[in-house]
Prior knowledge:
The complex is a heterodimer. Chain A is an all-alpha fold. Chain A has helices at 4-15, 19-41, 44-61, 65-68, 72-88, 98-101, 111-119, 123-130, 133-145, 149-156, 160-179. In chain A, helix 2 (19-41) packs across helix 5. Chain B is built from seven helices and nine strands. In chain B, helix 1 crosses helix 3 (39-59). The interface between A and B is large, with 82 and 64 residues. Chain A: Residues 25-90 form the RNA polymerase sigma-70 region domain. Chain A: Keywords: DNA-binding, Sigma factor, Transcription, Transcription regulation. Chain A: InterPro entries: RNA_pol_sigma-70-like (IPR039425), RNA_pol_sigma-70_dom (IPR014284), RNA_pol_sigma70_ECF_CS (IPR000838), RNA_pol_sigma70_r2 (IPR007627), RNA_pol_sigma70_r4_t2 (IPR013249).
Amino acid sequence: MTTPQDLEELLSRIQLRDRAAFSSLYSATSAKLFGVILRVLKDRAGAEDVLQDVYVKVWKKADRYRVTGHSPMTWLITIARNAAIDRLRAGGPPTDDIDDVVQVQAPGATPEQAAIAAGEAGRIMACLAELDTDRASAVRGVYLEGHSYQDMAQRHDVPLNTMKTWLRRSLNSLKECLAS
Amino acid sequence: MTDRPDTTPETEPLAAEYVLGLLTPAERVAFEARLRSEPALLAEVRRWESHFATMADLEVDPVAPPPRLRDAIEARLFGLPSASLWNRVAFWRGLSFVTSAAALAALGAVLLPNMQQGTDGPGTPGPDTQGPEAGIPAGTLLMTHLIPTEGSTLGLAVTREPSGILQVRRVAGEMAPGRAQELWVIAGDNAPVSLGVLHEDALTTLVPDAETAELFSVGAALAISDEPPGGSPTGAPTGEILALGTLVAL
């Protein structure tokens, strides 16, 4: 079992170009990231490509990790999920790497904040549970499967704007619950 | 959908939509421009990233990627496949941390009858500070258990007799049909040196030449690779690494 502290330590060593640390990080995290990518893409060959790109990025951008104030797993999953979505929506411009352009720390984005976030791990689950089932599963589908507004509008057979309004309301309820 | 279509304008939870990838390309570019100058908005993006990633961490089942991906990634980043071998050896060397009890239990022991100096126990094989020693004193018996790598079931016990003769016993796993298994010794940052190909029976006796025998020292690593029949054609490991072990001082 690899603790967040272990992963923090590995990321610090990767910043110092420690290949053994990189190998250890891969062993500890690749199955979770591959699961996340596969869930979005549903295509093994594509998911394998994306997983490679993700770890190449992790090696090259380990120094950007601290700026985000994220826990190691949040940082890794965010990179993996964004890479998978970019591939799914191939054709549009790739998502800007805000870790690159935003060099300042977000207020409150500190290791302590990451610790607090880790302590609140259950909060998102509790808040999703407070939403109606169909709203919660729509939010899950957007993050985990990469559904777009168009996908959802087609699925429910409603106009696009109706879908947007409905999901935005769900997100606003979620935001209120998470802030309380 | 339980809602009637609704006409009240809803505040746009842009940060959440951005993190979810719901914005159109034009909206996204505009939003990213704001992120550079609005720290509060960026903080909100970070919060959503954290919440949703936590959800994924809790809800998504891990799926082991195929073992060749690690090699492909390390080849892209570090070049040669031999670098990948080196990395894995380094990985086992760095067992001081992120380790498993099983791996530690399997770490070999070096029995030094003269017990010249006390060093760290096998639980903390730190980085080599003393550098490879030139050979080892006569009369020393070296032993190690090779730990199977991910996806491999091969386990080997290696004994080195005072005369330099190696006895390699396969204690778990077997030969893949039509393939050979080759034993390598890696001293310090040097390239792996072949010790020979293993027999199909459980026990193989290998007699390294004098120069190769010099490589055996505390901290040297042994590795077994999968090779074509007759062993590696290149003089370096060409196939998957099946098991690894490090000689550590008690």
